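Fig. S4 source data, part A: sequence.
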Amino acid sequence: MHAQTSLWTQDQAIAYEAAIEAINDVIAGYSEQIATEQARALPDLTRVAWLEVRTDQAAETMASLDVRDTANVRQALIEYSAIARTQDADEHAGVLIGLIELLRQRGIPDEG
């Protein structure tokens, strides 16, 4: 019986899964932004179209990733992780702004 060799390393598999997760997070963020924009009384259709293009690009990147292509997996992981972090920061900032506005409406002054 001979030992079976793996087609990729464990490190490659971990990086690939992390890249896929980052891309999925970005797609989810874009989808949330699309839904928010479409729910507005006057949605910005140019923004919706741009978000849809970015969603398609992310999906294409994900479909084209090869677990054995370390350089491309690494690049996708770096790029999409950065986008996901930005989306998260924007979401948190929006929540904080909303809370501050709610406090102001209730007559509670901010300390700034």
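Fig. S4 source data, part B ends here. The radius of gyration is 20 Å.
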